[in-house]
């Protein structure tokens, strides 16, 4: 459960299977970021969608990460926190060399894909 206006989201459920992560995120409609993005019509900024992927991956793998390469980013549908209190994140990953993790991720609300990402993170 979210408690402050600082947190954009919280993770209410996370499951990890062999090279795959599935998470349910709860969106904080009262987060201060929505005061500027956009007043009267809030939407999650695209950069924040990428940050959600990174933070969920860090939690599941238990290590800090930094983005090395974003090969494909597609922002397909806006997420309005007023009408979408939660979304699902699916991540498939593999280690390609020491510390390098290639991922494919999608953020989904209901049956609608909102964001797709393919890229590489570095552990540590």
UniProtKB/TrEMBL annotation:
Keywords tagged on the record: Lyase
User: Sorted alphabetically, which SUPFAM superfamilies does this protein's record hold?
Assistant: Thioesterase/thiol ester dehydrase-isomerase (SSF54637)
Q: Where is the signal peptide?
A: none
- Enzyme Commission no: 4.2.1.59
Cite a single GO MF annotation.
(3R)-hydroxyacyl-[acyl-carrier-protein] dehydratase activity
Per UniProt, the enzyme's principal EC class comes to lyase
Q: What is this protein called?
A: 3-hydroxyacyl-[acyl-carrier-protein] dehydratase
- Organism, per UniProt? Mucilaginibacter gotjawali
């Amino acid at each position: 459960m979210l408690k402050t206006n600082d947190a954009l989201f919280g993770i209410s459920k996370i499951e990890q299977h062999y090279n795959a992560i599935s998470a349910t995120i709860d969106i904080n409609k009262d987060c201060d970021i929505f005061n500027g993005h956009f007043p009267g019509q809030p939407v999650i900024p695209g950069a924040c969608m990428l940050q959600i992927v990174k933070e969920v991956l860090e939690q599941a793998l238990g290590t800090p990460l930094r983005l090395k390469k974003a090969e494909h980013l597609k922002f397909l549908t806006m997420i309005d926190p007023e009408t979408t209190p939660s979304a699902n994140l699916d991540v498939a990953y593999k280690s390609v060399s020491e510390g390098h993790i290639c991922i494919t991720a999608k953020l989904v609300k209901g049956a609608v894909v909102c964001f797709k990402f393919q890229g590489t993170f570095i552990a540590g």
